[in-house]
Design brief:
about 140 residues; Rossmann fold; four-stranded parallel beta sheet
């Protein structure tokens, strides 16, 4: 095998998470079922959705002060970092090396872009409880 060829054949696995129980289950499933086949660090990815700050305008009777917007964004960043740190800790407890990434934007778009950007071979997502039975409920 030529030098560097093995690097190209490594599969990158990414688990996209948020604060939902479904995301936690997706991470646990990945660790239980794929742990022995991971050949590179597991990517744990979260997206901070761009917040609609219109409620801030209503609450502040007009245009919200920049400090308030910054404060909301900083809080959101702290929540994301804590989520990633907890996920990394879970991986470490199971002997899996993990790399964490957080970005801002529309989660659907950002996840798709991250798959391309990080050359991900397998993307794992939670389903937010929208299984076939729940989707068809009431039809």
């Amino acid at each position: 095998m030529a030098e560097g060829e093995g690097e190209r054949t490594k599969k990158r696995v990414m688990v996209a998470i948020d604060e939902s129980e479904c995301s936690h289950h997706a991470l646990e499933w990945t660790l239980a079922n794929l742990r022995d086949s991971l050949s590179s660090p597991l990517l744990i990815y979260t997206v901070q959705p761009l917040q609609n700050v219109s409620f801030l305008a209503a609450a502040s009777y007009g245009s919200p002060p920049p400090e308030l917007i910054r404060s909301v964004q900083e809080y959101q960043q702290k929540v994301s970092l804590a989520l990633l740190e907890k996920a990394k800790e879970i991986c470490s407890e199971r002997g899996v090396v993990a790399e964490t990434i957080t970005e801002m934007g529309d989660p659907k778009e950002a996840i798709c872009q991250a798959v391309e950007k990080f050359d991900v071979s397998l993307l794992i997502l939670g389903n937010h409880g929208k299984g076939a039975l729940q989707r068809n409920h009431g039809q």
